Automatic annotation (TrEMBL):
Residues 17-96 form the Carboxymuconolactone decarboxylase-like domain. Pfam families: CMD (PF02627). It comes from Streptomyces musisoli. This is Carboxymuconolactone decarboxylase family protein.
Length: 161
């Protein structure tokens, strides 16, 4: 399957991409642990079937020191022993926020309580924005058929700066 369209091929597309990237960069610079950010982005991308984003976040997480074991188990995090309680809360929020159509009541109160137990106000804000932004990025990539497999770590620069 070939990509349909390059969203960054026009001046207007580049303008929108930069603004989208600015919001994401602000989240990346938050105090929300980078490992948690990568795990959340990977899990949401898996749910949404975005090959490009799964490729990107797997490689970026590995480059940042994430273990192969945890990367392999993120899809089955509920049945794994390698994730901390704060990571589990973030992953639960990511899944429930992503699968809104499947969860008639949206995010469960219990999930929200766990997030608030482990994350301060700024980290919670960053987490909610992160989930929204990766869902949007997945939808952009899936729509234009960006393909996974060719991402090179760091090709978009250091996202944490």
């Amino acid at each position: 399957m070939e990509p349909r369209f390059n969203l960054m091929s026009t001046e207007y597309g580049t303008k929108l991409g930069k603004r989208f990237g600015s919001t994401s960069q602000a989240v990346f610079q938050s105090s929300l642990p980078r490992s948690t950010q990568e795990l959340v982005m990977l899990r949401v991308s898996q749910i949404n079937g975005c090959g490009f984003c799964v490729d990107l976040h797997t490689k970026e997480a590995a480059l940042a020191g994430e273990t192969a074991l945890r990367l392999h188990l993120v899809a089955a995090w509920r049945h794994s022993t390698v994730f901390t309680e704060p990571e589990r809360a973030a992953l639960a929020l990511a899944e429930e926020s992503t699968r809104l159509a499947d969860a008639h009541q949206g995010v469960a109160d219990e999930t929200w309580e766990q997030v608030r137990k482990h994350y301060d106000d700024d980290q919670t804000t960053a987490l909610v924005y992160l989930i929204a932004m990766i869902n949007a990025a997945n939808r952009l990539s899936v729509t234009v058929r960006n393909q996974g497999g060719s991402y090179e770590p760091g090709m978009f620069g250091d996202l944490s700066n």
